[in-house]
Structure prediction request, 99 residues.
Amino acid sequence: MSANKSTLIEYLTDSVSYDSSWAIYAERVEGKWKPESFARFGQCIYENGGLMDDCELFRTNESIVNAREAYTEGDDEFIQEWAEHYIEEMNEAYHRLGL
Prediction:
């Protein structure tokens, strides 16, 4: 988890610890998460991951790791493709829920 990362796509394509107490929080742009959305890690036990900014819970680390492994089957060649697909999948899920 590098402190130099700042976009959602960078966090998703980097190593993410398998830990349900941490999550990625990201800003939505025009109501959607985008690969270039500002993102950060935060602890789930705190409101908004512990920081009062414009970021919203994207997914827990545990959920991210499970989804990435299911899609890529451990093949790092597909991580970028998976990350782009996952962002769209999360946008569609939030849209269906009316969020």
Observations:
- The chain has a mean pLDDT of 92.
